Structure formats: structure tokens, C-alpha cells
């Protein structure tokens, strides 16, 4: 088993244990509260665990001796698991905001609660119940994320290192919230945004909603746990930001052209949701006024027909925007590799991080 696969198993076990330890509390409160544990357990299954992996790699970048103390190792795994809980909370809320029906090929959290409403014979609107319950679930997962992080930091030998990791975690939470809000704004502000500003604003969303919290922050949290120097942390930021941008640019392409059987999301999902991504900004910049008006009219229509989705996909392909985004992915991956080449870390750590660039930037889901 590879180190990455082993870490995925350790993180999954830690998440399962955390839910199991709290399931009895729900049972003691009321039988009706037990679905929180069950749906949490289901929702925390699967995923690539990139954030946990980058936290682990950030720690190993600094811990040249590759510590074997089981308590310290478990503390790092616990902190890495906290990032996966935070990610799960963000997905629950993101699916709510976007009214997404699925996540990883299964019903999204609010749809699961809707089904519970129907199966239980409750009165009222199932959709309203599902959305309200999912908000609570997302809040619960965020709370659990903080619990796990606190538990992990408590067992880190250096209080200074633990404090630095906590500070980066808090910054990450603020930036993701701001990035999510900016994404909301862009989906609605585009009619009053100048053509010149559309692309940089879309790039800003990528940076704060995804890139920093997907790669940079986990790396820095991991490095901080091991007492990373200012130079090491700065180098990991220089590596993590462009890699995170490339990661999200790939995600934007998959959101329009991805295979539903692989991505677990409907075809053209970002088109239905009206995402004003870099891909869309680049497409609009090349279109004549007529086709641009048609794109704007269709983008974000929840009732898009398959033929209309295909029309939008064809328009985007013919605009040349896909090739431009692919070039941006390659350029950002190149910047990440350049930063890694001069990073003050061991050759082993450099090799391990380099091996993650391709999976993140050339993935199909």
C-alpha cells in the first residue's frame, strides 16, 4: 500500500471514529436526531482526501527525520482529518447554495434530508425541511472540524507550532467564506461588471474559494505542525497557490465537460448553476454580441434542456476558451514545479510533492 493510500485509510478511520463516538449522544437526545450521525457517516465516505494529503506532506517537508512517535503521527493524522471535515461542511453548504442534487454520485445532503422527510410522513414542504436540516449538518461538521483540530494540536509537542497551525486554519476559514461570497456575487453581478474586469474577478474567486484552501493552507498547516521556518512556509505557499489554481481550473473544465459517470455530477452542472468561471469569462470575451447574449440568457437556467447544454458546450469549445484554460493549467503547474525546485526542503519531500502535481492537474473527476 502506498503512503497516500495508507493516509486515506487512516483519515477515514479517524472520521468514522469521531462520528461513532458522538452517535450515542444523538440517540440519548432523541431517536429523531439519529439521522445526523447516519447522514454524516455517509457524507464523509469517499473523496480523494487531497487536503489531508497536503497537510501530511507539509508536515513531512519540515520533519526531515520522518518522526516515528505514534502519538505525534496520530496528532498529525487528526489535524489532517479536521481539514476533511471542514471540506465536507463546505460541500454541504455549497450544494445548498447551488441547489445541487448530487455529490460524488450520490444524493447531496439536503436531498437526503428531503427523502427522510417524505419517508417519515412529516407535514410541510420536504425541500424546506431538507435545506434547513442541511444547514445544521454543515454547521455540525464545521464544529467537529474544530474539535478534531483542537485535539490534534493538543498533542503537538511545540505550543508555538500548534499556535501557528491554528492561525493558518482560522485564516483559511475566513478566506473560504469570503471566496464563497465572491462566487455568489459574480453569478449575479456580471451584468454590471465591465468586460475588462470579468476575468480578474473570476480568477479572484478561484484563488479564495478553492486554490488557497485546497492546497496552500493544508500544506502550511502541516508545515506549521512541524515547526516550519518562515522560508519553508513561504516556499510552500509559492508552490501551493499556483497548484491550487490549476486544480480549480481543471475542476471548472470538468464542471462543463466532465463525464457524469466519473465526476458524480450531472453533465454541464456548472452551466445549469450559472457559474461565472474563468472558462466562461474567456468564452464571452471572444463572442460576438448575439452569441454572447444567448450564452448569458441560457447560463444559470435551472431548466436547461440537454440540447441547450450541448449548445453551450459547443459554443465554449468553438470559442477557443478550453485551449486557453488548458494553457493556464500548464502554466500554473509549471510555476508550482519551479517554486518546488528551489524550496528549502529535503529532496525526498520535493519528490513527494512533485508526484502530486500531475494527479491534481490531469484528473478526470
Distance between the termini: 22 Å
CATH overall fold name: Farnesyl Diphosphate Synthase
Q: Which strand order do you get reading across the main beta sheet?
A: 1-2
Total E-strand runs: 2
Describe the oligomeric state of these chains in a short phrase. Answer: single chain
| Helix count from the secondary structure assignment | 16
Contiguous uncertain segments of 5+ residues: none
Question: What does this 3D model show about the protein?
Answer:
The chain has 365 residues and is mostly helical. The protein has one domain (3-361): Farnesyl Diphosphate Synthase (Orthogonal Bundle), CATH 1.10.600.10. It has 16 helices and two strands. The protein has helices spanning 3-29, 35-43, 50-62, 70-98, 109-120, 126-154, 159-189, 195-225, 230-257, 260-263, 269-273, 278-286, 289-298, 306-319, 321-341, 347-361; strands spanning 102-103, 106-107. It has a two-stranded antiparallel ribbon. Strand 1 and strand 2 (106-107) form a beta hairpin. Helix 8 packs across helix 9 (230-257), helix 9 packs antiparallel against helix 15 (321-341) and helix 12 (278-286) packs across helix 15 (321-341). It is globular, with a radius of gyration of 21 Å. The model has no long low-confidence stretch (mean pLDDT 94).
Amino acid at each position: 500500500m502506498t503512503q497516500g493510500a495508507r493516509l486515506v485509510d487512516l483519515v477515514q478511520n479517524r472520521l468514522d471514529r469521531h462520528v461513532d463516538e458522538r452517535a450515542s449522544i444523538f440517540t440519548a437526545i432523541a431517536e429523531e436526531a439519529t439521522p445526523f450521525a447516519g447522514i454524516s457517516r455517509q457524507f464523509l465516505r469517499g473523496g480523494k482526501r487531497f487536503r489531508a494529503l497536503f497537510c501530511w506532506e507539509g508536515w513531512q517537508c519540515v520533519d526531515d527525520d520522518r518522526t516515528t512517535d505514534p502519538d505525534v503521527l496520530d496528532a498529525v493524522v487528526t489535524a489532517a482529518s479536521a481539514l476533511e471535515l471542514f471540506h465536507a461542511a463546505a460541500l454541504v453548504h455549497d450544494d445548498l447554495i447551488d441547489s445541487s442534487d448530487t455529490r460524488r454520485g450520490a444524493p447531496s445532503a439536503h436531498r437526503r434530508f428531503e427523502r427522510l422527510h417524505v419517508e417519515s410522513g412529516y407535514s410541510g414542504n420536504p425541500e424546506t425541511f431538507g435545506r434547513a436540516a442541511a444547514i445544521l449538518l454543515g454547521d455540525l461538521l464545521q464544529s467537529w472540524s474544530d474539535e478534531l483540530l483542537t485535539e490534534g494540536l493538543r498533542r503537538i509537542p511545540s505550543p508555538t507550532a500548534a499556535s501557528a497551525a491554528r492561525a493558518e486554519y482560522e485564516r483559511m476559514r475566513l478566506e473560504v467564506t469570503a471566496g464563497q461570497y465572491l462566487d455568489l456575487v459574480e453569478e449575479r453581478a456580471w451584468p454590471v461588471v465591465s468586460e475588462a474586469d470579468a476575468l480578474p474577478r473570476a480568477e479572484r474567486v478561484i484563488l479564495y474559494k478553492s486554490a488557497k484552501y485546497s492546497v496552500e493552507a493544508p500544506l502550511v498547516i502541516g508545515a506549521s505542525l512541524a515547526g516550519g521556518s518562515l522560508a519553508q512556509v513561504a516556499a510552500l505557499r509559492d508552490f501551493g497557490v499556483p497548484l491550487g489554481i490549476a486544480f480549480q481550473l481543471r475542476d471548472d473544465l470538468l464542471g462543463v465537460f466532465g463525464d457524469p459517470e466519473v465526476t458524480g455530477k450531472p453533465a454541464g452542472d456548472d452551466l445549469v448553476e450559472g457559474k461565472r468561471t474563468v472558462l466562461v469569462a474567456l468564452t464571452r470575451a471572444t463572442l460576438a454580441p448575439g452569441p454572447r447574449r444567448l450564452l448569458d440568457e441560457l447560463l444559470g437556467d435551472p431548466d436547461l434542456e440537454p440540447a441547450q447544454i450541448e449548445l453551450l458546450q459547443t459554443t465554449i469549445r468553438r470559442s477557443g476558451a478550453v485551449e486557453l484554460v488548458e494553457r493556464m493549467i500548464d502554466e500554473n503547474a509549471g510555476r508550482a514545479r519551479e517554486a518546488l525546485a528551489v524550496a528549502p526542503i529535503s529532496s525526498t519531500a520535493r519528490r513527494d510533492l512533485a508526484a502530486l502535481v500531475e494527479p491534481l492537474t490531469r484528473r478526470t473527476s
